[in-house]
Amino acid sequence: MRPVGSSNHSRWECRDYVVFIPKCRKKSIFGQIRQDPGEVMRWLAEQKESRIEEGHLMSDPVYMMIGIRSKYAVSQVIGFIKRKSEIHIARRYAERKRSFVGQHFWARG
Question: Which residue, 8, 36, 41, 53, has fewest beta-carbon neighbours within 10 Å?
Fold first, then answer.
């Protein structure tokens, strides 16, 4: 049986299937940084009291099943992970001191 989250007054089992796609399908860029986004996304999800239960880094998209605590909206957690991972990628691989300004790594969806 899968673990169910709980707090003082509630129990929940909220799991969502999410797909992140790099903007303009940047396969050449994404191929170089293949392993790093998994660690970063796992760390960011823990900051929002969520857990990535399953994830696959393909050549282009990122597939993951994420368990989100009931007090957070799904869009809030996913938006947080996309923004912060984008900043990390910009600083680490694009040699930028600031985040992408007017440029985004992840596509909207």
Answer: 8
Number of domains, the chain: 1
Taking the C-alpha atoms of residue 44 and residue 47, their distance in angstroms, rounded to an integer, is 5
Q: Is 85 exposed, middle or buried (0-12, 13-18, 19+ CB in 10 A)?
A: buried
Contact 55, 38 (CB under 8 A): yes
pTM assigned to the model: 0.76
Indicate whether 108 belongs to any domain.
no
Is 102 domain-assigned? Answer: no
Three-state DSSP at 109 gives coil
For residue range 17-59, list pLDDT tens digits in order.
988 887 766 565 556 666 677 888 899 999 998 888 998 877 7
